[in-house]
Structure formats: structure tokens, C-alpha cells
From TrEMBL:
This is Endoplasmic reticulum membrane sensor NFE2L1. GO terms for biological process: cholesterol metabolic process. One of its GO terms (molecular function) is lipid binding. Keywords: Activator, Cholesterol metabolism, Coiled coil, DNA-binding, Endoplasmic reticulum, Glycoprotein, Lipid metabolism, Lipid-binding, Membrane, Nucleus, Repressor, Signal-anchor, Steroid metabolism, Sterol metabolism, Transcription, Transcription regulation, Transmembrane, Transmembrane helix. The gene is LOC115387282. Residues 606-633 form a coiled coil. Residues 233-246, 317-342 have a biased composition (Basic and acidic residues). Residues 679-688 have a biased composition (Basic residues). SUPFAM superfamilies: A DNA-binding domain in eukaryotic transcription factors. It comes from the Eukaryota. Belongs to the bZIP family. CNC subfamily. Residues 185-197, 395-409 have a biased composition (Low complexity). SMART domains: BRLZ (SM00338). InterPro entries: bZIP (IPR004827), bZIP_Maf (IPR004826), NFE2-like (IPR047167), TF_DNA-bd_sf (IPR008917).
Amino acid sequence: MLYLKKYLTEGLVQVAILLSLWGVQVQVGLDPDRPPSLHELLLGQTSALTPARHRHLWDLHPKSVDLDGFFTARRLLGWVRSLDRLQVPHAEVEAWLVQREPGPLPDQPSPLDRPADGIHRNVQARAAQEEDEEEEEEEEEEVRSVSLTLRLQHRFGGPGLRPPHPGFCSSQTSEPGTGTGTRTGTGTAEGPSVSASKPASSVLLQAAVSLQECLRLLEDTCPFPEDPELGEAGDRREDVQRRPADRYAPLRPPRPSETSSMDLELHWQDLLSILEPEAGGRTAEETDGSVLDQMSLLDAALEGGFSLEMEASLEEERYLEHRTTREDRRGQDQAERRHEGNVSEDTLLSLSFCPSSETVSGSLLTDAEKEADSDSGLSLDFSHSPASPCVSEASTSSSSSSSSSSSSTCMSAGGSPFTEEEEEEAVESVAGSDMELEMRMKQEELEEEMGAVGGGSAEQLFTFKPGNHKLLQHLPWTEHVGHDHTYPQPWSPVAKTTSSHGRAAAARDGASPYRRSVSESKMWSRDERRARALGIPFSNELIVNLPVEEFNDLLTKYRLDEDQLNLIKDIRRRGKNKIAAQNCRKRKLDVLLGLEDDVSGLRRYRSRLLREKEAALRNLQEMKLRLGTLHQEVFSRLRDETGRPLDAAEYLLHFGPDGAVAVASRQNQAERPPTGRKDGKKPRDKRK
DNA sequence: CAAAGATGTCATCAT
DNA sequence: CCATGATGACATCTT
């Protein structure tokens, strides 16, 4: 038996060492039945004994400091070091805070309040608990992903929250499904608690309700065995035994902490700011979806370490993405404006509206984008901008008219409010001369000629058939001409072909009698009048809009003197410049609106960054506070050679790059640079 | 009739 | 060099 016992003991020790090297916590203690504290479960190695520690354990002078003090101090020193960096794992900080908070842990002394724990932990491997420890490891991985939910519950749970207890740290890693599943399990497990303890005066009541709905929904999806004792069971072994049957997420206690609540507050502010503008028009499902998305985002952020950084980068990403999207859209719009005649104004409109209508799907990013920049607003503003009356006309009439009619409507509305007959009357009354008739004859003649030549665009241009306005509207120049005060051209193909729509538009717009009362000669632009005066045989529209080859062909087909040629070129140049000016103004307005949009987006971004900065400062302040407290705790347990406590005002803690921790006096520290090796009044040099 | 906005025109530069 | 587009500045028109 002795022989076997020896081997067994050695084997256990070896297993423990191996596990320690592997990073698995080795739970040791004189009392194997004592349930490990939450602190131990979460902090793991702080209570584990690695071989190196064993050596120090053996090397410790029995008179120097008691073992408990040593271990506790070491743990505390480790925390000091970890607090020095801001990448303190959330779970550990929270665990520490949980332990520190006296309220929720009436029966669980904090690690600082349990000086006698460590000394009783001998090296006693527990091979039987190997599986449990593995599960605990995985469980710690889960802690982060679940912590958000816990914090949410902590926030909304109010007084109904149960105090955290180590017994809650049952491990359950066989959660089916993804992260949603994890939330599902947790939410379900915490469901009764949440529902039983409604927040008394929560400002975020609505969001809390939606969260509860979400949790309830999840609970319905995955029914869990209700266990009211989970909150305070504290019997970890019982939990472990129940685990195989319980295939769902671990039941964990809320771990309230100031850090978590502040983090949550920050994230919740963002969440609300995102949800707020659309809360009215969104369904509960969408809201819940956003909440879930936000939660997943927060989970990811928590896993990333420092959540604020993540948040800021995310926001920046959103903003940049928005800008890219909008610029792409702008570029697309311009490209369409330039190239096609195939896209009607309505199509353009639908393209502009498309992003906003497609992004109602509750995605966080798209929501943020919508909220952050109101990109659709840009399109709307743009479409309703005064510089694009054609588009706005199309948008207002698109519900009742086809795309072709809307496009032609805006043409005619700006072009001429007269009907075909009225136009002819006007022509006759204004010109009233044989010259006009002659010119029209020539126009028709030219039209036939061009048709015979076979020029495609010219054929379309010169065709007076009413149905051909569909072809005309696709010509590039027709897209931009919303107003035409100086080129009414009553006989022009465009005016004729769109006259019927023009009448409708005129009727709808009130068909200002101004035009009729004005002298008819005003209907003619200066160039028109000049052209007529010089007897130019084709319309200004033709002069302006013909491609250069056809235009040159046209000029060669007529005998034109110098003045006529110059005037024709001037007309063409002015006409093109007019269109260019319209496009230019349109673009300018577009840019202006885009810049306004950018400004508002940047303002929002700035305010968010300021909020995050404030939160980070609060965080930092709190960490400093905790560090100070911890510092005091550490020094309260340190003793010099004579057994007297060290004065924190007199000594400093040194953290070497190799993990060594030492105590140095402040005087010596002041005398020599910090990089210097500590010496002099060095009561004790503790190394790991 | 004045003011403001819309639109046209010119000059100039760039492509 | 020419045609054309872009754009600022000014003129003219419209409301």
C-alpha cells in the first residue's frame, strides 16, 4: 500500500505540474471539499502552484513572511502589474471587482480578505477534477461573450439580481449553435430573474423591454429547466453533476462592476443613439435585431480588450464606408448623367432611393449609416433641389405617370406650356411671315434629307411623330434641360413631341398666364431672333444638339454666308454652354449638399468621440483609484525583516521586465534613476 | 419696385 | 488647332 501510495502521489504531483505548465489551474488545498471561490475560478493561476512557485515556496524563509501573505501579496502584485496595462481582461477585472464589492458577496470574502487561504493550499493534484478544470478553462472563454448579457441584466435586473456566487461558474461548453446560442442560453437562464425583477425607474425602460422580449423569445425557442436555486446554490459539485443533463448555456451570476456598467452605459448610449431616430418607424423585431446586433458587436468589442478603441474604429469605419458609398453613388450618378441616354430620370431617382430603401433591414451598420449621414436625405434633397426641377417634377408625378411621361413632362413644363396648335398659332402670330413657313418647309426638307442620309440620331431628331418623344428623351441633352426660358422653340421637335405632356404639366402647374400675356416676341430667345433675322434654315435646337459630324454635314449642305456661320457657331457654343452651366450648377449644389452632409456626419462623429473620451477618462480615473487601493492593500501586507509593515509612502514597487517584483525605498529611488537596480534599503526582494 | 433666386452668357482654362 | 466641358463672373429674367 505504501508503495502504491507513493506512486500515486508522485503521479498526481506530476499531473499537477503538467497541468500547471499547460496553463490549467490546479486547485490545491487542504480541504478538497471546499468549493473554490469565484476568484479562484476566474483568476485561475493566481491560486495555482506552478513548479517555479513551489521552489519559491520551499525557499521561503519561515520567518520572513507567512505563506498566505506571500501568496496574497504576489496575487496583488500581479494585479498591480496588470492594472498598469489597460488590457486587463474584462472577466478578470470584473471578477476582482465582484470580489471587492462587499455587497453582492456577503459570504465570499475578497481575495484580500482571505489571508489564510493560500497557506493551506498544498500541492495536491486533483486528477479526478481534470475534466472539470478543462471545462472551467473553456468556460472562462465563454465568460467574455456572456458578460455583456450579464451586465445587461445587471443593469436592468435591479434589486432582483442574485448575488454572484462561485457556484454559478458551472461550465457548459457544449452549447449548440453560435453566439446567438450563447446569448440564448444565458438569456434563458437569466430569464426568470429578469422578469421577476423589473427595473424600478429605468430610463432605458423601453430598451429593457425590448431586451426582455428578446430574451423571452429566446427562451421560447430553447426551453430551459427552471432552477430558482441557481442563483445562490453555491454548490459547485452539484452544478457539475447537473451539467451533463443540462445541455444549455452555463448559468452564471451577474457580475456587477463599475467598469462593466460604465462600459455598458457607453455602449448603451450608442445603441440608443442609433435606435432613437428610427424607433418610431421600426418594428419590435427590427429593434430587437438591432439590439442583438449591437450586443454581438459589444461582445466582439469586449473580446477585443479595450472596447472604446473598437468602438471608435468602428464608427470611423462606418463613416468612411458611408463616404465611400456616397462618393460611389455620386460618381455613378455623374457617370449616368454623362453617358447614357438609356436611363430615365425616374430610373435615376430609383437608383438614388435604392440604398435607403434596401437598408431598412435592421443591420447595425446600415442603421448607423442611415442615422449617421441620412444618405437618402442627400438623394431626396438632391432630387428636390431647385437646381433639378426636372427630377423633382418626375418625383412628384412618378406615382401617376410612367417614366417616359414624367421625363417628357419636365421637358415640356420648362420648354413650352403651349399645345401644338397654340405653338403654331404663336409662331404664326409672331413671325406671321412667309419666311417662317419657308423655314419650316426647309426644316421638313432637311428632315427628309437627313432621314435619307441615314443618320440615326438625326432621324430621331427630325421625326415629328408623337410617339418618338421616347427616343428624344433619351438623348443626352434632354436630360439636363429642365428650364428653357430662352429656347422655347415652338416648332422644335422636342417641343412638339412633348407638347401634350407640356399641356398637362402646364395645367398642373397653373400654366402661368404670364407667358401668354407677355409679348410673343419674348418667346424667342435672342439667338432665335438673330437666327431668324439672318435666315438660318434650321432650329437652334438642331444647331446645338447635333453631333459635330452631322453638324458639319449640315453646314456643308447649305450655302451660308459668314454672318450666318458665325451666328450658328455662336448659337451652338452658347447652347452647349448653357447645358454645361446647368450641369455645373447641378453639380455644385450636389457638392454643397454633400458637404453639409459631411459636416453633420462629422459633428456626430465628433460628439461620439467626445463621449467615448469622457468614458475613457472615467475609466482611467477609476483604474487609478483601484490601483491606489490595491497599492495600499499590498503594502498593508508587506513586512520588512523585523516584521514591521512597510510604509507605502516610503517604498515603491518595482516591476522588472522579467516579471520580477521588488520593493525599493523612495529615497533611493529618488537618488538614482528608475532604471537603476534597486538596492540600499531593500527589506525584501521577492521574485517570482 | 426691390430683392432674391434662377437662368443665360461670356471668358477662360483644361482635356 | 478645334471641339467641348467646366466654371467663375456677370447679365438677364422670373417670382
